[in-house]
Each structure stands twice: as structure tokens, then as C-alpha cells.
Amino acid sequence: MPDRRYRIVIFDDNELLGITLWREFHATGYEAYYLRSKVNGLDWIKQYHPDLIISDIESPELDGFEFLRILKSDPAASQIPFIFLTSRASLESAIEAKNMGAADFVSKPYDPTDLQEVVRRVLQEHSGHDLHASTSGKMPMY
After folding, report:
1. pLDDT given at position 30
2. Of the residues 39, 84, 110, 130, which has the maximum number of CB atoms within 10 A of its CB?
């Protein structure tokens, strides 16, 4: 069992879905955060160094692909695993995401159990340890 909580940050412009995801990850023991704004999230990521980023693709201020491009070009953020959770589910989008360096691509609507398994697997692959979530605390929203 890890000696710290794994920090996951969720980006989705749909606030209801973002809060739902936060609750699901919080309930399973991750240190989860929900941020609506990818633009504000860039600074947050640099400051808090999450272990995993989950993001939608479609959003009014910053497209998920551009968001991933920005993160992959920043040495401080380029190694953070990134999962797309999106209703823009097509083979072309999934291939583009993987080619850009996304760790995985999950379609909406999603199955909570399947999403939890994808997150666990991605974190395990990235950390090299068998993962079990711990308990967490706060949910800042930006």
C-alpha cells in the first residue's frame, strides 16, 4: 500500500459531471480535485504536481487536445499521465489522443467501475507499484 494518497485532477466544463467524478474518486480514497477551467488548471498543475490528469476534449476555452499539447511541451508536466474522458468517442480521436501521449481514452457515458480500473492501471504503470487508494480531503474548484 502506498504511503501517500494519489492526487488526481479532473477537468470537465460540465460541473455536475466534474463533481460526480470528484465524489467517485474521493470515495475510493484518492486525493481528488475538480477544476472547470483548463486555462487556470495549467498553473494549478505546475503548483500541485498531480499524479494523474483526467480531462474532457470539448470545452469552450481550451480544447482537450491543445491542453494535452501544452502539458506535453512543459518539462514540469510532460510526465504526468493523462486520460481523456469524453463524449467525442471515435476511433480517430482515440488514435490522436494516444499519438499525442495520452495514457488512455475513455468514452462517456462511462462505467464508474471501468473508469476506476483504468485509473488504477495507469497509475500503476506510471509508478511501477501496485496501487490502492487512501483517504483524502478537500475539493477546490477553479
Report:
1. 97
2. 84
